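Lab meeting, item 3. Inverse folding demo.
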């Protein structure tokens, strides 16, 4: 009987040791996965910061584009005015030439 009890106790110890080993393997697996997830989270945080920086740059560039478009409109208006003045001066010069030709004839 003592031998049977000893055998039973030994089997319980063996079973407990096996269960502990299995639990340790699971724990190692979870710890590894936890490290992977922590790395992914850090990568996502870095990615979010990059996106936030890019968003800020886009907003800045949008402002610059709007400013450039406003400047472009002013330049176009000034060019149109300059072209109009140049055309009027050409007409005046042609009129002067015609007048001088008529006076000399």
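The presenter then showed the designed sequence:
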């Amino acid at each position: 009987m003592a031998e049977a009890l000893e055998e039973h106790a030994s089997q319980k110890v063996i079973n407990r040791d096996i269960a502990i080993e299995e639990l340790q393997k699971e724990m190692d697996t979870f710890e590894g996965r936890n490290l992977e997830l922590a790395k992914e989270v850090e990568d996502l945080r870095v990615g979010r910061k990059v996106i936030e920086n890019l968003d800020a740059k886009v907003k800045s560039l949008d402002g610059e584009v709007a400013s450039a478009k406003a400047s472009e409109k002013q330049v176009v208006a000034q060019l149109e005015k300059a072209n109009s003045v140049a055309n009027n001066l050409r007409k005046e010069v042609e009129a002067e030439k015609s007048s001088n030709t008529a006076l000399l004839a």
